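Pinned message: reference record for PNMT methyltransferase
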Amino acid sequence: AALREGYERFDPRAYLQNNYLPPRADFSSEEFVVPWKLRCLAETFASGEIHGRTLIDVGSGPTIYQLLSACDHFEEIVATDYLAVNREELGRWARGDPGTFDWSPFIQHVCKIEGRGEPRQEKERRRRARLRRILPIDVHRAEPLGAPLSPPADALLSAFCLEAVSPDRAAFARALAHVGSLLRPGGHLLLLGALGESFYLAGPARLPVVPLAEPDVRAALAAA
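Predicted structure (tokens):
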């Protein structure tokens, strides 16, 4: 209940300004978190092992950076978020509405590290085309999307989400098991997050994060 109340104050624009503009969105060094995240995802998808018809992004928030390298490997990408304000922000970007957050520096950087010489505009066009659905999700329900997905997803991606919406380690482990039910047998889960983080900022909201250690995450994955 306390987490839900905190997220009622979540401001997508403030969150984007806090976390995805300079100085945090600094592409000059891989020591900064944003280029690190983009390279992790680019190298993972470049392996060629993770592909298929459908990828579900669990807890997209108002961001699309985490899906830039995925768009070349799946026919359909499904974005999800608990908050309607985040789903609305994603919908505005997908439609190309004016005044949405400018992701072009991120797209340009991904094109650079992927090394294919692809124009940024082509990557952006393809990314919008592959984002077919934006759905509500509650990872604390046994069926997070409200009903089983048919067919199940070939891959799941969750970036900095589950630890930020779980009140404790046990809830994190249960949430991981819940979202795992969306995945087909033999599919892939890409989990990107922070260890030891205790909070993050989204405008007036100071939102708690479960400070996980690596053994916590490994145990939750094994249990799920």
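Pinned by admin. Summary line: The CA atoms of residues 107 and 120 lie 6 Å apart.
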